[in-house]
Amino acid sequence: MNTSAHADHADHTDHAPVVTAVDHRTAVAAETARFVAAVKDADLATAVPSCPGWTLADLVRHTGGVQRWFSTLLLARVQEPPRTREVDLRLPEREDGYADWLAESASVAADAFAATDPDLPMWAWGVDQHARFWARRMLFETLLHRADAELASGLRPAIDRALAVDGIDEFLVNLPFATFFAPKVANLRGPDRTIRFHTTDGDDTTDGDDAWLVRLRPDGFGLDCAHPATGTADATVRGTAADLLLLVYGRLPYQAEALAHDGDEHLLADWFANSAF
Question: Among residues 7, 115, 164, 201, which one has the fewest Cβ atoms lying within 10 Å of its Cβ?
Answer without folding.
Answer: 115
